[in-house]
Amino acid sequence: MCDETTEAENSLWATGRTLGRREFSLMTSGVAAAMLLPGCASGTVADKDDQKDATMEVASRTVSIETPDGSADAFFVHPVSGSHPAVIMWPDVAGLREAYRTMGSRLAEAGYAVLVVNQYYRSAPAPILDTMDDWRTEEGRALIDPMREKLSPAGTTSDALAFVAWLDKQAEVDTSRKMGTCGYCMGGPFTLRTSAARPERVGALASFHGGGLVTPTDDSPHLLISTMKAAMLIAIAQNDDARDPDAKTVLMDAAKKAGRPAEIEVYPAQHGWCTIDAPIYDEAQAEKAWSRMLAIFSEYL
Question: Residue 31 above 60 pLDDT?
Fold first, then answer.
């Protein structure tokens, strides 16, 4: 997921290098991370006029949702008329910011009522950082790391239950249709926890370069697949797959055993490639992943 290892891998990849065993060993011990991280580069947010699938006029508002741990702020965006399938969008490590407002709005323009959540609401309202580049600085990591420590599987499940319940009370949401969820980087495993929290409600999930989908712990997200009723799109970064090549097989086996439709693919792109303000953003592969999400949502929601 978004950590010193993947950032260093991405930095080397961007310069045309690959990781040797010594470099990888140093990074996993934390020694080489600072040495290999690049300086800040300016990320860009795609102009909404460039979105190929924009078809509906949308409206948006910032909302507050009560959870057992406090009030969670979120960005709610939806077509201006009618009711539509809901989607919960979980941002990457840098949190809810302009890039994810843009991405949420694009999904709403395709016909969905989208709730882009602030996973760090226990610590501060969004935006906490303005861009992914901010997280890549020493100051950005020092700000985010304590907030990440407050997150837990149980807390994510509790949040998901609150978000689903809130959405089902909104006039813009068609409760006769299944709900979807999508997540990026650290938000990837949150999509599985959301789907397992309300299996009768969540019909499809999309995880993009998700980190920690398969772990050796008893609360590994992949173990939840047996309790879900959602179709799955799991798009894996090539460097994540290189470090854990067995994860995709474990995920596919779990999906097959549970009888769940699953599209699990390793993309020829680096971790973080789908987030539009990420320095590693790969437009061609991001568009492919986006189109696959729309296809799965269209079929199962």
Answer: no
Taking CA atoms, 41 is separated from 15, 161, 217, 272, in Å, by 14, 37, 36, 15
- Residues paired with 236 in a beta bridge: 266
Task: Name the token pair of 68.
Answer: 């057992």
Q: Residue 67 CB: number of other CB atoms within 10 A?
A: 18
Q: Are residues 240 and 208 in contact, defined by beta-carbon separation less than 8 angstroms?
A: no
Structure tokens at 276: 């539009």
Question: Which amino acid, 176?
Answer: S
141-200 confidence digits (pLDDT tens): 999 999 999 999 999 999 999 999 999 999 999 999 999 999 999 999 999 999 999 999
Residue count of the chain: 301
The closest of 27, 26, 148 to 94, measured between CA atoms, is: 148
Rounded Cα distance, 262 and 215, in Å = 19
Task: State the chain's mean pLDDT as an integer.
Answer: 87
Mean pLDDT of the 264-281 span: 97
Whole-angstrom CA distances from 289 to 76, 93, 165, 247 are 22, 19, 28, 19
Q: Where are the alpha helices (DSSP H) in 20-97?
A: 21-28, 33-36
The amino acid sitting at 103 is M
Burial 108-119 (b: 16+ CB within 10 A, else e): bbbbbbbbbbbb
Q: Which of 266, 274, 198 is nearest to 230 (CA)?
A: 198
Task: Tell me which amino acid residue 245 is.
Answer: P
Query: In the prediction, which pLDDT does 12 show?
Result: 45
User: Contact at 8 Å (CB) between 230 and 297?
Assistant: no
Judge contact between 253 and 222, C-beta under 8 A: no
249, 255 in Cβ contact below 8 A?
Answer: no
Q: What is the pTM assigned to this prediction?
A: 0.84
What CA–CA distances, in Å, run from 246 to 65, 185, 242?
38, 18, 9
Q: For residues 100 and 55, what is the distance between their CA atoms, to the nearest angstrom?
A: 19
pLDDT of residue 55: 85
